[in-house]
Write a structure and sequence with these properties.
It contains six helices and ten strands; from the N terminus they run αββαβαβαβββαββαβ. It is an alpha/beta fold. The chain has a single domain (3-179), classed as Rossmann fold. The strands form two sheets. The chain has a seven-stranded mixed beta sheet with strand order 7-6-5-3-4-8-9. Strands 2-1-10 form a three-stranded mixed beta sheet. Helix 1 (3-13) runs antiparallel to helix 2 (30-46), helix 1 crosses helix 3 (62-74) and helix 2 (30-46) packs across helix 3 (62-74).
């Protein structure tokens, strides 16, 4: 089972590669979105994210957040929405953000920055460089157990229960499952 495969790969396999996947501030067809998700998943895999590894996200742009959600799901990681004490509680291996965060002593393996300047040249990666790096070795989808945690927003959501959750991530996945473009 893989949420990203179900959302994107199946659409491409069914001949819907050129149909809109994303509408709104950003427009993408299924093929283009799959390419970007595979690239970002390749980057995450390259910095050590694997099944069950937490990936922290704090992004204002819905499209970027959706891309990180799908890329994390593609390789079986757990997306952690960074609010409150979640950074300290879940200690994500990778963090993706559009602002400088107080890491509070936590040392993630990588921080992908969408906008702010690099602070730590060993740990931090600008978004565009991260995407270029991921394109050199895009990740395929990996099978995960239904009981694996897909994401943590108000609480943990298991992969097998993801479409029934009551949050924006589940709403996005339900749109993909129904063949509707996601509005961002």
């Amino acid at each position: 089972m893989n949420l990203c495969f179900d959302a994107l790969d199946k659409r491409v396999i069914l001949g819907e590669a050129d149909l809109p996947a994303i509408r709104g501030a950003v427009e993408r067809d299924h093929a283009h979105l799959l390419e970007e998700v595979g690239a970002f998943a390749g980057l995450l895999r390259g910095v050590g994210v694997e099944a069950g590894t937490p990936v922290g996200v704090e992004l204002a742009e819905p499209y970027a957040e959706l891309l990180v959600l799908l890329a994390t799901a593609r390789i079986g990681g757990t997306l952690v929405e960074l609010r409150g004490e979640r950074l300290a509680e879940h200690r994500p291996h990778a963090v993706v953000t559009d602002r400088l965060l107080d890491l509070g002593g936590h040392a993630p393996g990588a921080v992908v920055l969408r906008g702010p300047e690099v602070v730590d040249p060993v740990r931090d990666l600008p978004w565009e460089l991260a995407m270029r790096a991921g394109r050199s070795d895009p990740a395929g989808s990996v099978a995960v157990e239904a009981a694996s945690i897909a994401w943590i927003t108000d609480g943990p959501v298991a992969v097998g229960e993801a479409l029934g959750a009551d949050d924006r991530y589940a709403a996005w996945l339900r749109d993909f499952a129904a063949g509707r473009p996601v509005e961002v």
